[in-house]
# Entry
Amino acid sequence: GDKAFAQFLTDEIQEEKKIQKHKSLPKVSGGWELEVHGTEAKLVRKIAGEKITVTFNTNNSIPPSAEEDTQEQQKPDEQEPELTSTPNFVVEVIKDDTKQTLVLDCHFPEDEIGHEGEEESDIFTIREVSFQPTGEGDWKDTNYTLNTDSLDWALYDHLMDFLADRGVDNTFADELVELSTALEHQEYIKFLEDLKSFVKCQ
# Structure
């Protein structure tokens, strides 16, 4: 059984490498620096007096509906639909002269992906906003967190503009999806390779 499993994995790895779009990771425009630790990625950008970091994790970032459909209707020779990784991401804005960090928790609404028609609509939304003490590892649940569900639209628009002024806009979000998808695929191939060596190990 293990032999067949290892053979299957070898084929699978070859297939996945064939469809791998990016041999090296796609860049995010706008002077962002990328750090990757396993499935967690961090983009950092410094502008006058501020540091902006965007953190996301590729685990569980592929919407479930895409996967279920492929299982049922898949014909052997058919090209699998492309899986896209749309992770939640956290934007932190740190001003040099304050002890507080503004934290904006953003996500890609599932029904928005793929609606090309509406030019003006944002492809990501801000879910929560809070202040956290700068430089502390653990954020406090006791800090007030503003949930945007019940938020005044004008205030919400200002928050979106605030992000856009710092380079976090639709273009950035598109590039983040592209980067995250490439990272996720890379991790998946690495996982298959690790699994193969694990299975072959007698």
